[in-house]
Specification:
Keywords: Membrane, Transmembrane, Transmembrane helix. Pfam families: DUF6198. It is built from nine helices and no strands. Helices cover 77% and strands 0% of the residues.
Length: 226
């Protein structure tokens, strides 16, 4: 129980920090990351918030990931819902500042990516599954036999194009984010000595199977007593 509470606390801390990092990159107003361009495009087209767009896209991706054979964790579901939820709280209540000059905005953009790196350590380190977008990348890599780099670039170019056509904001910051986010996250992992390969994830089907075993044992025990 103690281990489970630590995992859940770590997961939610990571999801909240991830939302903070995303909103910081949005409020930098230098251009959105590819997925956020897509979310903003959907937001404008459908008349919903960016957080709601993020949740909706995440929900669809979870279904696609499942159909492609990817195992889902509670962290996958939490990522789908709570990042978008936290984003709306932060943005609708103006909890993250907006700066005028391009230098502080650039600083906010870079700091936001660093926060995303720290958030990734928390939520991935909880060992409760990856996010639905990462799951799509892994699933398509397995199915197509293409490199992770090719699949990731293909996905991000696709959502960036779709988001732009829907009215999402592309700017200089979009290029910076696309080129720098991977390096900054990797630097953050090295800085905190975090190794993704060492994480043993627990998936939803693991808990379902455990519950079945417990119910079966309780049933057998009850039959023996009778």
């Amino acid at each position: 129980m103690k281990t489970a509470l630590i995992r859940i606390t770590r997961l939610f801390a990571g999801l909240l920090c991830y939302a903070v990092g995303i909103v910081m990159t949005i409020n930098a107003a230098l251009g959105l990351a590819p997925w956020d361009v897509f979310h903003q495009g959907l937001s404008k087209t459908l008349g919903i918030t960016m957080g709601q767009a993020s949740i909706g896209v995440g929900f669809i991706l979870i279904i696609v990931d499942s159909l492609l054979g990817e195992r889902l964790g509670w962290g996958t579901v939490g990522n789908m819902f709570f990042i978008g939820y936290f984003m709306d709280i932060l943005m609708l209540n103006y909890l993250i500042p907006v700066f005028e000059g391009w230098i502080p905005r650039l600083f906010m953009l870079i700091l936001g990516m660093f926060v995303i790196g720290i958030a990734s350590i928390f939520y991935i380190g909880a060992g409760l599954g990856s996010g639905p977008r990462d799951g799509l990348m892994v699933a398509l890599t397995k199915k197509t036999g293409k490199s992770v780099r090719f699949i990731r670039n293909a996905i991000e170019i696709s959502v960036l194009t779709a988001g732009y056509l829907l009215g999402g904001f592309i700017g200089f910051g979009t290029l910076i984010t696309a080129l720098a986010i991977g390096y900054i996250v990797q630097f953050t992992f090295k800085l905190f000595h975090f190794d993704v390969a060492e994480i043993q994830h627990r998936f939803i089907d693991d808990d379902v199977n455990l519950l079945r075993k417990l119910l079966y044992k309780n049933k057998e025990h009850a039959e023996v007593e009778e």
